[in-house]
Structure formats: C-alpha cells, structure tokens
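User: Assemble these into one structure.

Assistant: Restating your components, then the assembled model:
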Amino acid sequence: MTIATPSTQVASKSATAAPTRVDAVRRIAKEIARPNAADVDHKARFPVETIQALKEQKLMSALVPSDLGGAALGFGEVATICEVLATGCASAAMVFAMHQIQIACIARHGRSAPGLCQYLREVVEKQYVVASVTSEVGVGGEMRNSVAAVSREGGRYAVNKDATTISYCEHADDLLLTARRAPEAPPNDQVLVLLKKGDYRVEKTGNWDTLGMRGTCSPSFKVFAQGPEDHVLPAPFADIASHTMVPVSHVLWASVWLGIASSAVSTARAFVRQQARAKPGTVPPTAVRLAEVSSLLQTMRTNVHDVVSEAEDLMTHGGSDALSSISFALKMNNLKVAASQLVVQVVNQTLLICGIMGYKNDSPFALGRHLRDAHSAALMVGNDRILATNASLLLVLKDD
Amino acid sequence: MISEIRQILKEHGRLASDATTLADDADLYQAGMTSHASVNVMLALEGHFDVEFPDSMLKRGVFSSIATIREALETLTQGR
C-alpha cells in the first residue's frame, strides 16, 4: 500500500504546464518561507529570506503597469500569491500583501504625476519595499482622520507624524503616509504622500512583541519628512481609500487568512492520515471533525475567491461610480469580517483534531503559530469598527 | 430649498465651518463632513423632503456640495 505524500503543500494545478509565477511562489513558500517561519515567529524578526526571494522574482513590482516596466498582474493573481505564501509563513505573506496595497495606490492614483511614474519605474528596477503610515496617535484608529498635516513651500512638502504602528518600517525603503491636505484642513481632508528614502527619518517609540504576526515587525514610530511636492499624490485620499486602499487591503488580507486556514487544514489532514495508517480498517474518530472543517474551509475559500474575482473585475473595468457605490463597500467589508472570523474557527477546529500534537510547539503538527496569527485578523482594522460602518451604510441602501 | 438644506447640514453635517454661510458650491468633504456624517445628512434629507435616494444616487459626488444636493433633490421631487 502506497498512500504516501503526507505533504502540507498546496498542489500544483497542472504538472505539465509551463512553470508560472504562482508555481515559483509555491516553491518559495515551501522551500524558503515555511522552513524559516518558526524562527521568524520565535524571534519576531523580518522574513528577510522570503522577501529577498520575491524580489528576485520581480514580484515587488507585480502591480506596476506594463508601460512602466511592471508585470501588471491582476489583483486575482496577486491574491493567489498572498494565499500561497501564507501557507508557508503568514508574516511574510502579510508583508507582501501590505507592500502591494501601497503600490496599487500609487499605480492607480499617481499616474498624472511624472515624479510618481518615475518612482514606479524605479520600483521595477530596484524592487523597493514600501511600508504604510496610516495609523496615528490621537485619531482612535480611524484611518480616515489625521492629526498630521502637510505644509508646502517652494515646491517642497514637509510633514511630521506620530504613528502607532508602521509594519516593517525598519526594513522598508520608502513609506506612504496619510496626513491632512494642509495645516488648516479638517481631519478627514487627507492626502497620501510618498516618503522616499533620504527624505525621511524615523524615531522608534515602542516595541513589537505580539501574540502573532510577529514577523511583520510593526512598532510605533515618529516620522519626520520633507521632499519634492510632486510626491504628494494628486487624488484626494478619500477616493484612493474607497477605490483602492480598502478593497485591495480586504482582498489581500482575506487571501492571507485563507492561506493560514488551508495550511492548518493540511496539517490536520496529515495528522488524521497518520492515525488511519496506524490502524488500517478503522476510520479514526478525528476524521469526522476533519470532514467538518473541510466544509468550513470550502465556505471560506468560496467566499474569498468569489469576492476577489468580483473586486478584480470592478477595479479593472468598473468606473469610479461602481467603486464608490455602497454595495461595493459593503461587500468588501463583509469579506473582511467573514474571513477574519472563519480563519479563527478553522484553525480552532484543526487544533481539536490534532489535540496535544497540535498544542505542542515542537511537534510536526504544531498549530500554535497558525492560531496566534489568525487572531490578528479581527483586530487589524477592528471588526466592530467595520460592522459599525456597515450598519450605517445599510440604513441608506435600497437594494434597487 | 437651499435654506432647508443648510439647516440639515448645520444639524447633521458636523462641518468645521458654518453651514449657513458656506458657498453653494463649496466642497462639503473639504469642510469636514465625514462619510458617517453624510449618511446622517442623507437620512435627514430623506425624512425632511419625503424622498428616497435610490442606490444610483448614493455617491460621494451627489453629496459633495449644497448645489449638488439641491440638484439631486430637484430630480427626486420633479413632477410633484
């Protein structure tokens, strides 16, 4: 009897087709991300090997349009890359996802600024890593409010910001920061500014010793910057947020969480197979739980893939009206809330299947990291805040 | 109609500047109206003018100034 392959890898769709980008990422996930994941988690260190491997595949510029030299991948393919990477290391996948969100904002809303187009060309060539500075002390976690303001004089901008978290700040080349349009602007009249290396300095004001997602290295920092005025994105942040930043974030985050869930289920399957082999002829009692969690994972996968493909379609072909519509905002928010809850349920169930072997950190079936990483999902932009937004959107939606 | 819109903005728009003196074409979002406040403005307008904004009108542009709100309300109340 040769029912082997107790593997946790995501199977390749076709063994005969030419190797694709996604195949290359599967290899990175299996050979680089997974072997380093425990160390990244244990030391709360940046997943430097995985990000380096992604740079070598030119994937940091995956969303840069082709006329600027980029690969111009669709959001669906980038979402798949996030999902596959997360089966190896969720922190590395989340870093990759957050970087892509920044590039998407510049590529979709900075095309009219020659300085930003030039920057995207440099991203292709140099594979820069871009981090996000949307959080701030004093706004209570509301991304659409800022205290910091941009001042402009003689073709230069200046801005200082006290940020509560900047993921992989110390490992990024450049930053993308939100601030009020001008010193006299109200809190929600915001712009997005590209802070190029050399145009900014940071002072670390806190640590990053967290339950999960430890490799994203996201302490608090004070940021001080000044640079050329054309690094301020021309579009209002209100539009950038609703048309690009929020939908792309929710799509890519949900894909990362799906990868965590898939990986946990693969681990549970390997565990049940091992039990079955020990006593051929009887179905182990854990197999029923496995059947249950497999159904839950399918629910999650179908939801994520369905909304990803709809978002890709709208973001490629839909106009700004479609992207600003309440139904689109609701759907993107629903995806975030649902996927962030399902990932915890799925990983919890797999822990029940693997039992003490899942609970032990030094076991081949360890699930502690999956569980801790999964619990970040409901918190990164708190679900309660998102549900409150949806509650008020539903007051005016008419379903016509 | 304009003065009624101004009154509703004053009560529900949570603007940084005074809604009663704001120019008709001034950008309400730049005046500090949040998307949450815009939902309340919309509900108050629906109640006051006895209209329903269809989903196709639930767009940022429609609520961006006093003038655009009046335009939308005129469309909805046409033929009454």
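Chain B is about 50% helix and 0% strand.
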